[in-house]
Structures are given as structure tokens and as C-alpha cells.
Amino acid sequence: MGTDSATPAGNPSDRPTRAGTTQRPAPGFPRRWWRFLAAHPPPGLARIADRWRSPLRGPWLTAVFGVVLLATLPLVIITGLLDYLAYGPQFGQALPRDVGWLRLPQFDWPTRPAWLFRLTQGLHVTLGIVLIPVVLAKLWSVIPKLFDWPPARSVAQVLERLSLLLLVGGILFQIATGLLDIQYAYLFGFDFYTAHYFGAWVFTAALVAHVALKLPRMLSALRSGPPRAALTTPRAATRPEPPDPDGLVASHPGPATVSRRGALALVGGLSLLLGALTVGQSLDGVWRRTALLLPRGRQPGEGPNGFPVNRTAAAAGVGAADAGPGWRVTLRAGERVVALDRAALLAMAQHTARLPIACVEGWSTVQTWTGVRLSDLAALVGAGTPASAHVRSLEKSGLFNQATLQANQVLDPDSLLALGVNGADLSLDHGYPARIIVPALPGVHCTKWVGEIEFRTRTDG
């Protein structure tokens, strides 16, 4: 965007600062250190700084990108924290489990509306991807600030730079690790869930501090440049903004290679493109085939079981023999134990519900499930109104081979031990012989290949 190229650089000590103004030490800052730092910049710093010559850079364009992020990033943060709560941290099954004083208020995740988790997780992932061009454009607009020298003139500016470092580092870390996770490219040498959770808090704290420091300047910058003028001025008439105290305007601007209108259109177009290649993961039918950026969100096939699978039976180590005629689901409530095969389950009252299933990677789908209500199974084993239910899978290992369901999730009339989907038996990859389906529950806790359900009372802990 604009022109960024090198120009001959003279002696840095003979130059004004990059913004064309003379910087003075703030009161209280030792003058001798200021003079020493100002007189001894790193070799080549002035030449590097002069490479950033685009006339588009300035407070107004930076503020435009900033206000878009200020309006949308809180939604990404809030939906991410809500998704953490959906996993039931009170049962120790939200990751990371031990978050110390960063523990969120705990409450029973609701089952209504049934699409709640589908909405929060879909927004978190899709909006995070859509904002990538805006984040990069915002960083591009302020990159000359990296070459300010001296880097700080007061304690307050040191704190401002530190918040900026945490802000930029935090958002790049969250984007990079999030993208790798949804692509199933586990290249980290650390636990993704732990790093992403604590990284979110670091970024959020830095964002709050940065907004507190910069909001007045952002608002004044927006008022300084009428949008109509910026959006109607052609490239040939594009001129730099007036010099600003933050030094965002190039000291030696070159000719514009694109107008501000073109730059905003480019960033907006890239965001729309990423959105178009992402949103299909949350839509069924032909639109799912447009989810080119999400490997698990695409349509894997046709037929009643032709919808996305997060973890296949082969990956889970569950074979046809495990789900054969000898399979039983064991129901427990205190000392009472009941074992049922598929024939016994099919002989019970069947309930059908059209419910979504949504995955942490952001994809979701709505299917028609048929099976036995969990409340009926609880009554069968004498559990009455259980406080929770612990479900175990035939899956031998893995982070999600078991899950604890809250009372409202067990007793919801649409909560099922599903035996079929869309009028057909479940496929092995979708959890045959039986799987859990609960409204608004994260997909990985809709346990597949169920082997045991233990209904617990409050005194069971």
C-alpha cells in the first residue's frame, strides 16, 4: 500500500527525527542519557526508517483500522471465553484445567438455544480469520514507529511501548497458533490450549491498556480526516497527512501507488474473501464445499452420514469388533447397574430431534438424530433427577474419551443417546453403536462409541 522504498541517508546525527521534529526528553528523564542515545543510534537505523515512504500512512488511516479492531476484537475475546465455559471448567474438563486466579465465574452452560455453542465458536473462529487482513494493515500503518530512536523518552512512554509490544506479540501469537490448530498442524512444542488461554489474557490486558492510552488520539485522528474526502480522492491526488506528533507520517514521502480508498478496499476485499472461504464450514449443503481453508469443515461425502467428522474411528482406535454384537452400554446409578445392547435400546421409546453439532475448530452442522432420551435412561436405572452424568467412550485414549454432563444437559428433552441420524444407523465414524447428542454442547463432549454412563447424585460429588 503506497510506496515503501529506500532513499539516500545522510549522517543520522545531522538529521531530525523521522517525523521531522526534534524530540526532547520528558521532564525527569536524565538529559545525559537522552543525548547519549540520540547521538548513538544503531548503525543503519536511519536508512531503514527511510524505506517506509508511503504517503498513505498517518493518524487517520491508522485510526480507521484501529476503530474496526476496537469494535470487533472484544467479540472475539468474549466468544473465546464463553467457549471455554461451555466445556465445563467446574468438572475439570475445560483446557487448561488449572488457571489459578484467572478462573472464570462458573455456571451451568445452557442447552437453549440449541445453536448457542455453534454461534459462539463459529463467530470466534470465523471473525478471527476475517480480521487477519485488518490486523496486518494496522501493523503496516504503524511499522515506522519500530524505528523511532531513542525508543523511549520517559517512564510513561516505556510503559506505552511495553503495552504495544505485548499487544502486537499477543495478537500475532493468537492468530498463528489458532490457524495452526484449526488446520491440525500441531507444530508447537507446547500445549496449545494452555498457551492460547493465557495468551488471550495477555493480549486482552495489553489491548485494554493500549486503548486507555490511545483512545483520545484515535478519536481526534478520525475527526481530522473527513471520510468523504479520503474515499473520493483518486490516487493521483493522494497526498500525505500533515506531520503528526506520533511520527506516523513519512518524513520523505514518495508518490502514492494506490489511493486511501483503494487501500481500504483491498483490506476489506481480503477480509471478505477469507470470510467467503470460511463461512461454508457452518452451512450445510453445497455451501460447505466452499470452506476451502478448513480441512474438517468440508463435506466428506453424501448420504445420511455424509457430514464432517472430527475424529474417525480408526484415529480413536475403535474397530468393528468393539462395536459388534457383544457391545453393551452400562448404566450406573449408585449400586445399581443395567447393561443394554442395541436391540434393547431400540425397543425403548425413541425420540427424534434436529440439533446442531459444533466443533472447537469452528465447523458445525445440523442433523436429525434419533435415540433414547438420557432422562429415560436415568429413570431406568433409578437415578431420578441426577446432578450430573459421566460418560465414557470405547476410545482407549485421548483428551476427550470421557465427559461429564450437567443436570440440565442430562434432563433436556432433546438430550439423546443417539442410535441413528437422518433415518439411518450411525456410521462407525459418527459413533456407532451409540453416541451422545445434547443441545448447545461442544462436539467433543458429544461422546462417540459410548460404553458407560454413570448418573451421579449431588452426594456422589
UniProtKB/TrEMBL annotation:
Q: Which GO terms describe its biological process?
A: respiratory electron transport chain
Fetch the SUPFAM superfamilies from UniProt: Oxidoreductase molybdopterin-binding domain, Transmembrane di-heme cytochromes
Low complexity bias: where? 226-239
Does the record bear Acyltransferase in its keywords?
Answer: no
Task: Give me the segments passing through the membrane.
Answer: 60-82, 122-143, 164-186, 192-213
Q: Where would one find coiled-coil regions in this protein?
A: none
Query: Sorted alphabetically, which InterPro entries does this protein's record hold?
Result: Di-haem_cyt_TM, OxRdtase_Mopterin-bd_dom, OxRdtase_Mopterin-bd_sf
Alphabetized, the UniProt keywords read: Membrane, Transmembrane, Transmembrane helix
Which region ranges are annotated with the description Disordered? 1-26, 226-253
* UniProt feature, compositional bias: Polar residues: 1-10
Q: Name one GO cellular component term.
A: membrane
Record-linked Gene3D superfamilies: Oxidoreductase, molybdopterin-binding domain
Q: Which residues form the Oxidoreductase molybdopterin-binding domain?
A: 327-458
PANTHER family attached here? Answer: BLL0505 PROTEIN, PROTEIN-METHIONINE-SULFOXIDE REDUCTASE
Name by which UniProt lists this protein: Molybdopterin-dependent oxidoreductase
